[in-house]
């Protein structure tokens, strides 16, 4: 009986305790050790990412976002996803409703919330993957090689991180992300599509 009660109490505490993979900052956004604290001058951030041999990744989040919670609790802590981020990406976090000034690639300086409107971001989290070189006069949204609006599972997120890091959008134009992801699902399941 004691064992049954102990098991029940442990299960209850495990379910009742919030799952937190990243701490919340003063701005209410999740903070991880792989996010970079920069001046949010995107051309400078891109240059720094390139110098490190990494890709610039912008993550737009907001306070109280349940989908951001999901990504930080369930997806980003996954060892494969975390490793892919740490090895390949220079991550800059932006706040959908933030007032911190950023400098876009087109030279415009504006608040994070104004940038979100300018770039047409409606959902959080939104991950914006940038190329190594941004065309002159382009905004971050125009230059993006991929944009992932919303929360997705570990497999989809890992596949997108891999697809961008390997520049598959350039090397195999016949296999867009959806086809690549479908192929990866089949390969992970050893050919079993059910």
From TrEMBL:
Keyword Coiled coil annotated: no
Signal sequence extent: 1-21
Record-linked Pfam families: Thioredoxin_2
Gene3D superfamilies recorded: Glutaredoxin
Keyword Transcription appears in the UniProt entry: no
Keyword line: Signal
Domain annotation Thioredoxin-like fold: ranges: 50-138
Superkingdom to which the source organism belongs: Bacteria
Name of the protein: Thioredoxin
Organism: Palleronia caenipelagi
Organism ancestry: Bacteria, Pseudomonadati, Pseudomonadota, Alphaproteobacteria, Rhodobacterales
